[in-house]
Structures are given as structure tokens and as C-alpha cells.
Specification:
- With about 425 residues, this protein is α/β, with parallel strands linked by helices.
- It folds into 2 domains: about 20-60 and about 340-435, Aspartate Aminotransferase, domain 1 (Alpha-Beta Complex), CATH 3.90.1150.10; about 65-340, Aspartate Aminotransferase, domain 2 (3-Layer(aba) Sandwich).
- It is about 40% helix and about 15% strand.
- A hairpin with a 2-residue loop joins strand 11 and strand 12.
- Helix 3 packs antiparallel against helix 12 and helix 8 (about 195-205) runs parallel beside helix 9 (about 230-245).
- The relative contact order is 0.16.
- Bound molecules: pyridoxal-5'-phosphate.
- Pyridoxal-5'-phosphate binds near residues 110, 115, 145, 221 and 250.
Length: about 425
């Protein structure tokens, strides 16, 4: 095959219908503030903060400059046995906003890596305490925990699982929290907390002392915004405490202000033992994720090893990469100095009002929302997901990027949005939905 600069064939794109895309590509050539520009010159408002990861919009000069200067100063240092100053500064900054006592931070390069790292931390912690028989993990239907083998095994979305999930044994899934009686609920549903009792049943069936950890997204984002019923997360916390099970919140989407608070743990008033995070850590300007753990989880694992040997046999060549740390510090500074999380929180009601103006459209099956994230579920036409795929393309050409899962549009406006940006997102969504009615 002949190579030309604009030959699209060589790049096998992720989570994309490659043949369809390459027949009618949507190529973004610029990102600035709230907007992308496509290769035909079209302006596209970013209705999902990229993939929930760019709450400050695109092209923030402070972040770009921090990365540039870092690369000139010190572009790479092995993160095993050596370190750069930035990794400590960033970990300090993150630990200032995580709930106490989650004050120790392990750096990775993505949300998927944060999940597999958290799985290993759970195993290492129990083993260090002489509790190594805890080998079972509990997660939930319709969960998305990334695409690495551990994460996909505990995920609950069938298309991601059916080919790849058979490798990791001893995983059980609780029921997801959505039910018909929650249709068109704004915020947390009043009903449904009792599905947390699935965890109690697993403890009765398998023995609570065999379960290492429970992984949940506080709000299940990628499956289409499933908001936890009131009391649900508290119940999980209580059952975990009764049985010595670790509670892990996957805050990869929820973290860094999306829920109207620094983390979902704050928004829902439930503190997990471990939190994974990634999106929005660097405003997506550099790949990075992290795992925050309770102080005693850190000390138990490191104290179990003699002082002069490695305490945790895990890490990536690019863990705490200097450029990612620089991007992370610059991003966290902006969040702090500009009060970005408060800015997001002030926009929530307006955003929810806008979403619910779509309630009476014939094609809309459900609307769900919490914080600055909302799912607009369409009534499927043909195969599940066929309409959503078409809608996502139509929206793009109508001037908006929105993330879709199946037939659900998942809106997650950047925190820098003005009210007129929200209006524009809702208008484009309405007009595009009306065309299919
Ligand atoms: C809750 C959750 N966990 C993990 C991941 C995986 O993150 P990444 O795509 O950075 O590997 C995602 C990605 O959407 C996510 O939503």
C-alpha cells in the first residue's frame, strides 16, 4: 500500500467503526476554548469535554507552557528508584483535595491503568496483612472500568466483556442501579438503594472474608449516566466495613469537579478506601491517571517489605512522567486559583434545566443527570446503538461533539461553559433529535 500523508488506512482507530469512519472522516484540526474546528472548517462545540477530560476547554496556554518548559528542563527520568520534583508536588496537590485519609498517590498513564493498579493494591494490602485468601472482586453490571484485562473483567458492559473478560477468575457482579421507576429523575433517585444488598448476599454465599474489594463508579458514566439511588453508596460502605472489604470508587470520570465537588466521595458523603482517577487530572493535555489510597493501606504495604527492597512490584516506564506532572500541576493550579470546581457547581441547575427541556420529544426515552453530566437516552431504532452511532455523526456535522454509548448521548459540558454555550448544546441536540422523529 502506498503511503501518502493523507492516507487514513494505517491508523487502526480505537472504539471506532474504521471502515465507516474512513469513508466519511471527521478530523479535528484545532481545539480552542469551547470549540473544535474540523477539516472542512466547521466549528464544533465540545459538549462532552472531549471524553469528560477537558473541563478547562482546549489549548490553555499555561498548561502548554508548563509542558514545554518541563520538556526542555528535564524530559524523562526513570520513575523506579529515581524521581523528579514535580511528582511530589503533584501528589501533594492531589492529596489536598482527596478526602482524608486518602493521602497517598500512585501515578499511572490512564484510567485503565489506574484500575489494574488498584486491583493489585487491594491484593497486596490483604496479603501484607496475612489476609491473602481474599481473592474475589465484586463489581457491577453496566460498569465501565477501562479496557485492560483486570478492568475489563470487572466491567459490566457486554460488548467490552464478551470477547476479553474470561481471563480473570473470581469476579461477581451486583445488579446495576437503574430501573424503570426512575425514568426522568433529576439527580439521585429515591428508589433502588436495596440493590446494594446484592453485596450482602455475596458475603453470605461466598463468605465476606473471601472478598478483597468492591469496585464501583459512584455515577456510572460511560454506560449512560446511572446515578446512585439515595442511600445506595452508604449501604455499600456499611457492608464493606462489616466484612473487612475494601471499597474502591472509580472516580475516573467523576473526579476533579464533575459532580459539583472535588470528588464524588465528597458529593455523596461516602469515603472509599481507594479512589482511581484520570480524566481532568491534566485537562487531557498529557496522558495521566492516579490511584489515591488510605494512609494505612500505603503504610501496611510498604512496611511489610524490608526497608532496602522494593515494596510494591508494580509501575510503568512512564509513571509520573515529568511532562504529565507539569501538566497536572498547571491544571490543578488553575482549578485552585480560578475556583473552577465552584464554577462548575454554579452551572449545574442551569444545565439540568436545559436537559429537561428535551423531556417531551418523542424519541427521548429517559433523561438522567448528576453534577455537570447528563444522559439523554433515545428510543432505539433497529439494533441497539445504531441510532446513537448515526446521531453522533449527525451532531458532529450539526456543530457539536457529544460522547455516545449505545443510544445514550452523554453530555458533560466543560466547566468554563457560559450559559449561552449550554443553550447552544441543548439547541443542537434538540434540532438533531427532532430530525429523526
Ligand atoms: C469510570 C472509568 N474508568 C476507567 C476508564 C478508563 O480510562 P482510560 O480510557 O483513560 O483508560 C474510563 C474511561 O472512560 C472510565 O469512564
Amino acid at each position: 500500500m502506498q503511503y501518502t500523508a493523507n492516507n487514513l488506512e494505517h491508523h487502526w482507530m480505537p472504539f471506532t467503526g474504521n471502515r465507516d469512519f474512513k469513508n466519511n472522516p471527521r478530523i479535528v484540526v484545532k481545539g480552542e476554548g469551547m470549540y473544535f474546528t474540523d477539516h472542512k472548517g466547521g466549528k464544533i462545540i465540545d459538549g462532552s469535554s472531549g471524553l469528560f477530560c477537558s473541563p478547562l476547554g482546549h489549548g490553555r496556554p499555561e498548561i502548554a507552557e508548563a509542558v514545554y518548559h518541563q520538556l526542555l528542563e528535564n524530559d524523562y527520568v526513570p520513575p523506579f528508584q529515581t524521581a523528579t520534583p514535580g511528582s511530589f508536588e503533584l501528589a501533594n496537590r492531589i492529596s489536598r483535595i482527596t478526602p482524608d485519609p486518602l493521602n497517598h498517590v500512585f501515578f499511572v498513564n490512564s484510567g485503565s491503568e489506574s484500575i489494574d493498579t488498584a486491583l493489585k493494591i487491594c491484593m497486596a494490602f490483604h496479603r501484607a496483612r496475612g489476609d491473602g485468601q481474599r481473592t474475589r472482586f465484586v463489581s457491577r453490571e453496566r460498569a465501565y472500568h477501562g479496557v485492560n484485562i483486570g478492568g475489563v473483567s470487572i466491567s459490566g458492559m457486554v460488548k467490552n466483556r464478551e470477547t476479553f473478560s474470561g481471563v480473570m477468575p473470581n469476579i461477581v457482579h451486583m445488579r446495576h442501579t437503574w430501573s424503570e421507576d426512575q425514568l426522568f429523575t433529576r439527580g439521585q433517585p429515591e428508589t433502588g438503594a436495596e440493590v446494594a444488598d446484592d453485596l450482602a448476599r455475596f458475603c453470605e454465599t461466598y463468605g465476606g472474608s473471601t472478598i478483597a474489594a468492591v469496585f464501583v463508579e459512584p455515577v456510572a458514566g460511560s454506560t449512560g449516566v446511572l446515578v446512585p439511588p439515595k442511600g445506595y453508596l452508604n449501604k455499600l460502605r456499611k457492608i464493606c466495613d462489616e466484612h473487612g472489604i475494601l471499597l474502591v470508587f472509580d472516580e475516573v470520570i467523576c473526579g476533579f469537579g464533575r459532580m459539583g465537588a472535588p470528588f464524588a466521595a465528597h458529593a455523596f458523603g461516602v469515603t472509599p478506601d481507594i479512589m482511581t482517577m484520570a480524566k481532568a487530572l491534566t485537562n487531557a493535555s498529557q496522558p495521566m491517571g492516579a490511584v489515591a489510597v488510605r494512609d494505612d493501606i500505603y503504610s501496611t504495604i510498604i512496611d511489610a517489605a524490608p526497608e532496602n527492597v522494593i515494596d510494591f512490584f508494580h509501575g510503568y516506564t512512564y509513571s509520573a512522567h515529568p511532562a504529565a506532572c507539569a501538566a497536572g500541576i498547571a491544571t490543578q493550579k488553575i482549578y485552585e486559583e480560578e475556583g473552577t470546581f465552584e464554577q462548575a457547581a454554579n452551572l449545574i441547575d442551569y444545565f439540568h434545566d436545559g436537559l429537561f427541556t428535551l423531556q417531551n420529544l418523542n424519541c427521548v426515552r429517559d433523561i438522567r443527570c448528576f453534577g455537570l453530566m447528563g444522559g439523554v437516552e433515545l428510543k432505539s431504532k433497529g439494533a441497539p446503538g445504531a441510532l446513537g452511532t448515526q446521531m453522533q455523526k449527525d451532531l458532529f456535522w450539526n456543530g457539536m461533539h457529544a460522547k455516545f454509548t449505545g443510544d445514550v448521548a452523554i453530555m458533560a459540558p466543560p466547566f468554563i461553559s457560559e450559559k449561552e454555550h449550554i443553550d447552544s448544546m441543548i439547541d443542537i441536540l434538540r434540532q438533531t433529535i427532532e430530525k429523526i422523529e
